[in-house]
Amino acid sequence: MTTAGPAVGRPVAAVLAVVIRSGEVLLVRRANPPDAGLWGFPGGKIEPGETIHDAAARELLEETGVEATPQLAFASLDALDHDGEGRLRSHYVLIAVLCRWQAGEPAAADDALEARWASLATLADGTLELIEDVAAVAATATLLASAV
After folding, report:
1. Number of domains observed in the structure of the chain
2. pLDDT digits 0-9 by tens, 67-101
3. How far apart are CA 120 and CA 39, in angstroms?
4. Model confidence over 103-127: pLDDT tens digits?
5. To 5 degrees, how large is the angle CA 104–CA 60–CA 135?
6. Full domain range(s) for residue 79
7. pTM of the predicted model, to two decimals?
């Protein structure tokens, strides 16, 4: 996700590309604040004139080299970043998009330190330091992937 924060009070629309393959979910470890060092989904800001699905496919490819077909926007989350005094620095509205893997193996690029496939069990066991809501979004995506 792009690191430059929006003006305070102006939420910015962004996507999360949620890719499920063989019971595993694709994650990246973020390089930049606000979630530097934590694991989450590839994603970033929606560019002007870009559809939600196009943004998910683009961000996924930029951050991981993985190609996937966006299928369904299925959840929205608020990502609020506050400074040490509690002042709002940025507010993103994140739209989770279920994507069907097409090609490629994850290789970290753009603002990702690492990229990897992880099982739902790994998300639940505390092995990885996750961004808030990652495990719940992955569980929902897994259920949806079997129905789409």
Report:
1. 1
2. 999 999 999 999 988 889 999 988 999 999 999 99
3. 13
4. 999 999 988 999 999 999 999 998 9
5. 100
6. 12-147
7. 0.91
